[in-house]
Amino acid sequence: MNATQKLHELGQSLWVDNITREMLANGTLKRYIDDFSVTGLTSNPTIFDHAIKNSAAYDGDIRALLKQRKSGEELFFELALDDITRAADLFRATFERTCGVDGYVSLEVSPLLVHDTKTTLAEVKDLHARAGRPNVFIKIPGTVEGLPAIEEAIFAGIPINVTLLFSREQYLAAADAYLRGIERRIAAGRKPDVTSVASLFVSRWDVAVAGKVSAALANRLGIAMGQRAYKAYRDLIASPRYLRVQNAGARAQRLLLASTGTKDPQASDILYVKALAAPLTVNTMPEATLKAFADHGDVDAPMPADGGDCESVLAQFAKAGIDIDALASKLQDEGAEAFAKSWNDLIEVVEGKSKALETV
Who has the most CB within 10 Å: 3, 122, 126, 233? Predict the structure, then answer.
């Protein structure tokens, strides 16, 4: 049993944070499922930007869509939905085996809507209906404006991946939006088993403070924030409020650890995977990290439910002048801006390819 299989046996779902048409067509994703116990997949605008820009695999579909007078964002979503639904079909057996707990793929709404609640919700409903698969998550950012859309989407019965969370407080706000949607479904006599994950971004914390703290604190902030959020998650799902909705048939909105590829070349390439192993959670990781963990990873004791030493570590960062709350807000804002830039780059790539293919 390799390390990825051991992590799966521990109770943590391993998802791959990438999608390309090649990995769907050449059996790579199927191999990850069979050999590495991968049970889901996430995507984002940057991933699709690289996939379409660096491949001719989409050219035939782009030509066909141009003949249908599709362009720009509309054309992109046609390409993305084709990839996402093919991946969802590969994970359908996992979805069925786990009674809908696992086996999901994620597609993001336009990041340009990050501060537009009403349009975000409309696009969420449209994309999920067009995907036509029960195991497709639509990603909504956990910004202040995103929270009402999360609640309404859950109330509408749409599986949601809440993205761009960085802190315990941002996680709890997203979890509260999820619970409000579930409680409203129960009050309305609807089934409350709507699945969701809350994605906490990890490695960007350490990038943000690199060079600003002592060597003893290098690459420790992301793990501490993950531990703090995990404690909040475990406390919340054991709370009276959560137990009431679970007794009515609801599920836990699982904590998903995202951005778990190591950015520091001097640090272990499996740093975050090893430190954040925990049952009833998800870790979505880049392909390189997945393969590295399968090759030379190991599974020790799971992340402590009480947060371990996270508060003492965070106190050291505070003493070093790091304002955690302010940095969390900054990271969320910067993340939204980065995804918006990637989105604009992606649409430019789609439009550039469209023009080039129109003339061929």
Answer: 233
Q: Which residues are bridge partners to 38 per DSSP?
A: 14
Residue whose C-alpha is closest to residue 283's, from 258, 248, 304: 258
Q: Is pLDDT of 14 > 90?
A: yes
Residue 200 phi/psi, 5° resolution? -100, 120
Quickly tell me which residue has 């996430």 as its tokens: 42
**What are the two backbone dihedrals, phi and then psi, of residue 108, each rounded to the nearest 5 degrees?**
-95, 140
**Active-site position among 70, 139, 231, 353:** 139
Q: What pLDDT, on the 0 to 100 scale, is given for residue 360?
A: 56
- Region 208-228: what's the mean pLDDT? 97
Place of tokens 């090893």: 274
| Exposure string for 106-144, b = 16+ CB within 10 A, e = fewer | bbbbbbbbbebbeebbebbeebbeebebebbbbbbbbbe
SS (H, E, C) the chain: CCHHHHHHHHCEEEEECCCCHHHHHCCHHHHHHHHHCEEEECCCHHHHHHHHHCCCCCHHHHHHHHHCCCCHHHHHHHHHHHHHHHHHHHCHHHHHHCCCCCCCEEEECCHHHCCCHHHHHHHHHHHHHHHCCCCEEEEEECCCCHHHHHHHHHHCCCCEEEEEECCHHHHHHHHHHHHHHHHHHHHCCCCCCCCEEEEEECHHHHHHHCCCCCHHHCCCHHHHHHHHHHHHHHHHHCCHHHHHHHHCCCCCCEEEEECCCCCCCCCCCCHHHHHCCCCCEEEEECHHHHHHHHHHCCCCCCCCCCCCCHHHHHHHHHHCCCCHHHHHHHHHHHHHHHHHHHHHHHHHHHHHHHHHHHCC
Give this prediction's pTM. 0.96
Query: How many Å apart are CA 165 and CA 133, to the nearest integer?
Result: 26
231 is catalytic: no
**Separation of alpha carbons 219 and 206, rounded Å:** 5
Residues 65-82 have pLDDT tens digits of 999 998 999 999 999 999
Percent of the chain's residues with pLDDT above 70: 99
pLDDT digit string (tens) for 174-186? 999 999 999 999 9
- pLDDT greater at residue 349 or residue 254: 254
